[in-house]
From TrEMBL:
The keyword Transcription applies. It comes from Bizionia arctica. NCBIfam families: nusB (TIGR01951). InterPro entries: NusB-like_sf, NusB_fam, NusB_RsmB_TIM44. GO terms for molecular function: RNA binding. One of its GO terms (biological process) is DNA-templated transcription termination. This is N utilization substance protein B. The keyword Transcription regulation applies. It comes from the Bacteria. Residues 205-298 form the NusB/RsmB/TIM44 domain. The gene is nusB.
Length: 314
């Protein structure tokens, strides 16, 4: 689910909030970093469980409509296409998923059911729903496409849901694009014969990614005095007070990655930190960071001290 860029962003946020020096213990901050990364999975489960709640709300809605004193013929014999949506039922009946929700205490929608109502009402009022419900027969592919469209057009861009998530956990807003992309990828790839584990993706692609998060965090802090001197040397013509604190953090991380991670190509490192700077720092930050890193790389190449292994890593 996680990519290296988002791992870098989480490390950046943790280092930015760190107030100690390289001789101080940062076990607390490392624990916070890993918790922050793990909490992304809680956001994933929360949004997946919202789809389950939509299916349940649909059942409840039809049940109440059919029991109305003056129920219409249509209400007495409703179109059950939504409640029988195969993808939604696959999620609802997924025992492994339910176990994970229970273990992580993901029960927000029981307490904050009004947000389920908001999403459900938007679905009922949408053209997607009207078109989907024109027939009573369906196929797995049609059910899947409908759920994908609902998530894309109604759930993901919902402002009230966005505000709710921001209120619950401020860092979730940065995580939301990654989680939404992961959910859509899983929904688009699900098949009728998919196993329960399909909707329980791994948070990290492999153990190396988790180790990378910890090592980048630790090595940046443990070497920050030397790296700070490097930055000072390369910014002598800059007013230190005018260099954004976040730019300094990104430079420290980038220089650490260039020096201490021999298997990561230089171009990858530079491109990743420039993109993060564009998203999180000032409009001119990426130009500033690129200039410093470019000078540094040229010096390392000229002195043959660029510590990179393998082909194509320059």
């Amino acid at each position: 689910m996680l990519n290296r860029r988002h791992i870098r962003i989480k490390v950046m946020q943790t280092i930015y909030s760190f107030k100690g020096g390289e001789s101080d213990s940062f076990d607390k901050e490392q624990k916070f970093l890993l918790h922050s990364l793990d909490n992304i999975y809680n956001l994933y489960l929360l949004l997946i469980s919202l789809l389950i709640e939509v299916q349940k709300r649909s059942e409840d809605h039809l049940d109440k409509s059919s029991k109305k004193h003056l129920a219409t013929k249509e209400e007495k014999n409703p179109n059950k296409k939504l409640i029988n949506n195969e993808v939604l039922l696959m999620l609802k009946n997924n025992v492994l998923l339910q176990d994970e929700l229970e273990q992580r205490h993901i029960n927000n929608w029981e307490l904050d059911s009004e947000y389920v109502d908001i999403i459900f009402r938007e679905i009922l009022a949408s053209d997607l729903y009207e078109q989907y419900m024109q027939t009573k027969t369906t196929s797995f592919s049609e059910d899947r496409d409908f759920v994908v469209d609902v998530f894309t057009d109604i759930i993901a861009p919902n402002n009230k849901l966005y505000d709710y998530l921001e209120d619950k956990n401020l860092t979730w807003i940065d995580d939301l694009p990654v989680v939404n992309t992961a959910i859509l990828k899983l929904l688009r790839k699900v098949k009728q014969q998919s196993l329960s584990i399909h909707f329980l993706p791994k948070l990290y692609k492999d153990i190396e990614d988790k180790e990378y998060a910890v090592e980048l965090f630790k090595k940046t802090l443990l070497n920050q005095s030397k790296i700070t001197e490097i930055i000072k040397d390369k910014t002598q013509n800059w007013d230190a007070d005018r260099i954004a604190t976040l730019d300094t953090v990104l430079l420290k991380m980038a220089i650490c990655e260039i020096q201490k991670f021999p298997s990561i190509p230089v171009k990858v490192t530079i491109n990743e930190y420039l993109e993060i700077a564009k998203e999180y720092s000032t409009p001119k930050s990426s130009i500033f960071i690129n200039g410093i890193l470019d000078k540094l790389i040229k010096e390392y190449q000229e002195s043959d001290t660029l510590n990179k292994t393998g082909r194509g890593l320059m």
